[in-house]
């Protein structure tokens, strides 16, 4: 079938993207789903910093590629052998499909599935196939999803069935931003009720972490970012203290205000500077969790003495350490009960043709979550 899609032609083009236009919205070909695959009609897709990392070249991925990994839609068709969903089901995508058989999957860590990770790096679906093409030449998939398009073919292990009552533009947020941010708090760090928490980087993931900390009754929630309007939003969402990361006294002021830092700190900006701040504002005996993705060549300076003598813990968190089939329905229920107001992070609804402008706004920090509606 022919469909419209946002095709990344070349990574690393200069900003502004509205001028360099690394992405073109054009007609591409989509094959029918094969064994174990599904065809999804995309209804809403979030524009995430992980997508921007592919566009700017921070995360090396093969091009040309149809972008997008955070979305919700409706199952239109299923291939042979599919048993998890059926036509008409509402679903959200998972950006890390799991095979169910490798060591991480068997140990309850599907987000770091080995075949799934390799497939994402190769630009193909979990089974190794590519269902996208243009003029007979194969096009790569992003994270086994490629949802900046009218339709997507994906592995059945890349989708989770959801409640039909949830609006699909809101549902899209649970595909990445929610599970990554909320999961970092609930799963990776297992923050206890009443703890002290700080969040460095107030994009979609960081603000979801903040919402999760508030839901748990954290007695102090510190928000740190370089942009004052994001700090203002954090205060509206429940932050008790805010600090601008560009202030040279940011760390000292934060530690003074909190009596030595917070017990749990979450880095969600994806930069070495943000990770350094996150480590420095974590108190003695505390835990620093990073869910940001920086350039693979970047390293974080770390004082070994403080790690040992202060009994620090540093954890990486990918996909919020979630088991998506378990956690996504739980998080949706928390949202529907008013405990996790993630809809407040939906900045604006946009059209697919606005995609280059959307990445300019995301890169500038002018928005939290733009959602493409179809």
Task: Please outline the helices and strands.
Elements (H helix, E strand, L loop, with lengths): L1 E7 L8 H4 L2 E8 L6 E11 L1 H7 L9 E2 L3 E9 L11 E4 L9 H4 L7 H9 L9 E3 L2 E5 L9 E5 L3 E3 L6 H4 L5 H12 L7 E5 L3 H12 L4 E6 L2 H10 L3 E4 L5 H9 L3 E6 L4 H9 L1 E9 L13 H6 L3 E4 L7 H13 L9 E5 L4 H10 L4 E5 L1
Parallel strand pairs: 4-8, 11-12, 11-14, 12-13, 14-15, 15-16, 17-18
Antiparallel strand pairs: 1-2, 1-4, 2-7, 3-5, 3-9, 3-18, 5-6, 6-10, 7-8
Helix pairs in contact: 6-7, 6-12
Distance between the termini: 17 Å
Mean model confidence by pLDDT: 97
The biggest sheet, with number of strands, parallel, antiparallel or mixed sense and barrel status, is: 7 strands, mixed
How many DSSP-defined strands?
A: 18
Number of helical elements: 13
Assigned CATH class of the largest domain = Alpha Beta
The count of domains is 2
By CATH, the topology of the largest domain is Quinone Oxidoreductase, Chain A, domain 1
> Any idea what the shape is?
globular
Could you state the CATH homologous superfamily of the largest domain?
Answer: Medium-chain alcohol dehydrogenases, catalytic domain
CATH arch. level architecture of the largest domain? Alpha-Beta Complex
Radius of gyration: 20 Å
Describe the structure.
- The chain has helices at 17-20, 49-55, 103-106, 114-122, 168-171, 177-188, 204-215, 228-237, 250-258, 272-280, 304-309, 324-336, 355-364, and strands at 2-8, 23-30, 37-47, 65-66, 70-78, 90-93, 132-134, 137-141, 151-155, 159-161, 196-200, 220-225, 241-244, 262-267, 282-290, 313-316, 346-350, 369-373.
- The chain is an alpha/beta fold and 374 residues long.
- It has two domains: 2-175 and 341-373, Medium-chain alcohol dehydrogenases, catalytic domain (Quinone Oxidoreductase, Chain A, domain 1, Alpha-Beta Complex), CATH 3.90.180; 181-317, NAD(P)-binding Rossmann-like Domain (Rossmann fold, 3-Layer(aba) Sandwich).
- Strands 3, 5, 6, 9, 10, 17 and 18 form a seven-stranded mixed beta sheet that branches.
- Helix 13 (355-364) links the parallel strand 17 and strand 18.
- Helix 6 crosses helix 7 and helix 6 crosses helix 12.
């Amino acid at each position: 079938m022919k469909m419209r899609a946002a095709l990344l032609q070349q990574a690393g083009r200069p900003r502004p993207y509205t001028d360099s236009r690394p992405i073109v919205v054009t007609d591409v070909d989509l094959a029918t789903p094969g064994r174990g695959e599904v065809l999804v009609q995309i209804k809403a897709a979030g524009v995430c910093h992980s997508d921007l990392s592919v566009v700017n070249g921070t995360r090396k991925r093969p091009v040309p590629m149809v972008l997008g990994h955070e979305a919700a839609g409706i199952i239109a068709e299923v291939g042979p052998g599919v048993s998890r969903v059926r036509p008409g089901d509402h679903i959200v995508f998972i950006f890390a499909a799991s095979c169910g058989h490798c060591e991480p999957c068997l140990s309850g860590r599907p987000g770091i599935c080995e075949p799934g990770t390799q497939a994402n790096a190769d630009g193909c679906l979990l089974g190794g196939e590519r269902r996208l093409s243009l003029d007979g030449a194969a096009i790569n998939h992003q994270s086994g999803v490629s949802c900046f398009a009218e339709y997507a073919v994906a592995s059945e292990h890349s989708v989770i069935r959801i409640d039909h009552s949830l609006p699909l533009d809101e549902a899209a947020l649970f595909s990445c931003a929610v599970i990554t941010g909320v999961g970092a708090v609930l799963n990776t760090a297992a923050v206890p009720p009443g703890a002290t928490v700080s969040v460095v980087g107030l994009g979609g993931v960081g603000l979801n972490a903040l919402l999760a900390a508030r839901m748990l009754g954290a007695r102090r929630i510190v928000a740190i970012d370089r942009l004052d309007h994001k700090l203002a939003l954090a205060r509206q969402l429940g932050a008790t203290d805010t600090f601008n990361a560009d202030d040279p006294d940011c760390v000292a002021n934060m530690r003074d205000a909190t009596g030595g830092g917070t017990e749990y700190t979450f880095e969600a900006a994806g930069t070495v500077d943000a990770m350094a701040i996150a480590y420095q504002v974590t108190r003695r005996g505390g835990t620093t969790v990073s869910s940001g993705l920086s350039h693979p060549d970047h390293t974080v300076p770390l004082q070994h003495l403080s790690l040992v003598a202060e009994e620090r813990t540093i954890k990486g968190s990918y996909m919020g350490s979630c088991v998506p089939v378990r956690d996504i329905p739980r998080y949706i229920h928390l949202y529907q009960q008013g405990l996790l107001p993630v809809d407040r992070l939906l900045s604006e609804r946009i059209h697919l043709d606005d995609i280059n402008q959307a990445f300019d706004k995301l890169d500038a920090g002018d928005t939290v979550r733009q959602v493409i509606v179809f």
